[in-house]
């Protein structure tokens, strides 16, 4: 019976040694996992930093776009004002031309009348 006990104890010691070896392997694996997790945390922090930078860039772009929209609205308003003023000036110039045309017609009529009267006077004098 003593030999059986010794065998059992020997087997138990072998099993315990195997378990110790397995536990040591698990500890090593856990340590590797901890290292991997730490690396992932570092990567996540880097990604969060990148995302924050992108958010900042997007806000800057949105601000720029808003400024451009404002500039475009101002340009459109200026263009409308310019067009209205141009049309007013065009109308004024056309009115001036019409006045000049009427004056020219009046002058021609008067010149023709004067020429006729001169012709009549010349015939009467001759």
From TrEMBL:
Domain of life, per lineage: Bacteria
Keywords linked to the UniProt accession: Coiled coil
Coiled-coil spans in chain: 44-103
Protein name listed in UniProt: t-SNARE coiled-coil homology domain-containing protein
Lineage of origin: Bacteria, Bacillati, Bacillota, Bacilli, Bacillales
């Amino acid at each position: 019976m003593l030999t059986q006990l010794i065998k059992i104890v020997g087997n138990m010691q072998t099993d315990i040694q195997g378990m110790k070896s397995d536990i040591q392997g698990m500890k090593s694996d856990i340590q590797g996992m901890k290292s991997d997790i730490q690396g992932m945390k570092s990567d996540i922090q880097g990604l969060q930093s990148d995302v924050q930078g992108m958010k900042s860039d997007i806000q800057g772009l949105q601000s720029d776009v808003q400024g451009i929209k404002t500039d475009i609205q101002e340009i459109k308003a200026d263009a409308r004002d310019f067009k209205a003023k141009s049309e007013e000036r065009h109308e004024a110039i056309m009115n001036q031309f019409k006045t000049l045309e009427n004056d020219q017609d009046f002058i021609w009529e008067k010149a023709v009348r004067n020429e006729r009267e001169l012709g009549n006077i010349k015939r009467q004098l001759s």
